[in-house]
Amino acid sequence: MIQSVGYAANHSFTGLKRHEFEREDPRPNEVLIDILYCGVCHSDIHQVKNDWGNTVYPCMPGHEIVGRVAQVGSDVSKHQVGDVVGVGCMIDSCRTCEPCRTGDENYCEGPNSWLATYNGPMVPSKKSPDGENHYGRDNTFGGYSINIVVPEDFVLKVPANLPVEKVAPILCAGVTTYSPMKHWGLKAGQKVGIVGFGGLGDMAAKLAKAMGAEVVLFTETEEKLSEAARLGVQAVYSKDKDQMESQANTCDFILSTIPEPTDLEPFIPVLKRDASLVIVGALDKLKPFNNMEMAMHRKSVGGSLIGSIRETQEVLDFCAEHGITPDVEMIGMDDINDAHKRVNDREVRFRYVIDMASLKTEEA
Ligand SMILES: [Zn+2]
Ligand SMILES: [Zn+2]
């Protein structure tokens, strides 16, 4: 067994505190990674608070992991000790279902679906058709820790020219916004609307711009309008009716990154005919839409969940090629409860990244 330590929550209401535990030794196809940095995603907060009713405690979040390979299993061929690597939302999938065979592991239809980087399989044994957990791991402890063991196929290569302390948010926020823009065929010269300007919105705007699209950001937070100008994109205060009307029938694609149910009806008129509004971030029952506007102009509303391993590597390489880095603020591990509160209150526009050296030097 490998000694580890991280920050975990024991209940939905206690916050996170130091938690010592053991990880299994790497299997022949797995690598052990010493974690350098881990991003703080809104999903971490949902999971700690048990907002989806499926949290396994102790809950150690973190699925935007950047680290260095410390040990490799005997069958590992893709990674070497010393490589700088990344781990995103998944650490395994069934590998045999149709989505897995065609490179869409994030839509794995196996009995336990994919194995999440924290909180275990997406479909736990008590909900799986055969009552089993085929991964043999119930509680996977995530990246708010000093190390992690991951099958090599789910480990990403971090391009050398990306600043290692800023890479982490690409692994969830980046791929979650990149995947739908690729899937829905966003092209250079088209106009894309991004709803919400937090960690996901920041990445979405930068990626869309690098793809050659015109970008308009919609935010309910007036203070964030000037920040959008800094990114060189148009910004609209979505509570202002006149500003919203000025955007009517202009967008070829809209991506909503708001992490909770919100009224998206005002954005339907912003879509052009045949265009789609796709929702990432909110995994909830949404407010109903009036289908009149959608049917009259053959518009669609859809959803998308993170991205595949292939797409995660693609977005890392795309960011390296286009010099895209997420806006981050570095924190120590013991700042995490305060950071969760600020993200939850939607005060921050950037992504917090935990410097794991702060945990290694912390006294037990
Ligand atoms: Zn995430
Ligand atoms: Zn599968």
Automatic annotation (TrEMBL):
Q: Which Gene3D superfamilies match?
A: Medium-chain alcohol dehydrogenases, catalytic domain, NAD(P)-binding Rossmann-like Domain
Tell me where the signal peptide lies.
none
Q: Which cofactor does it need?
A: Zn(2+)
Q: Which family does it belong to?
A: Belongs to the zinc-containing alcohol dehydrogenase family.
* Primary enzyme class: oxidoreductase
EC nos: 1.1.-.-
Supply the name of the protein: NAD(P)-dependent alcohol dehydrogenase
A single GO molecular-function term is: oxidoreductase activity
In which organism is this protein found?
Terriglobus aquaticus
Residue ranges of domain Enoyl reductase (ER) in the record? 11-354
* Family annotation (InterPro entries): ADH-like_C, ADH-like_N, ADH_Zn_CS, CAD-like, D-isomer_DH_CS1, ER, GroES-like_sf, NAD(P)-bd_dom_sf
Listed A to Z, the keywords are: Metal-binding, Oxidoreductase, Zinc
- UniProt cross-references to Pfam families, sorted A to Z: ADH_N, ADH_zinc_N
Q: Which SMART domains does UniProt cross-reference here?
A: PKS_ER (SM00829)
Q: What is the lineage of its organism?
A: Bacteria, Pseudomonadati, Acidobacteriota, Terriglobia, Terriglobales
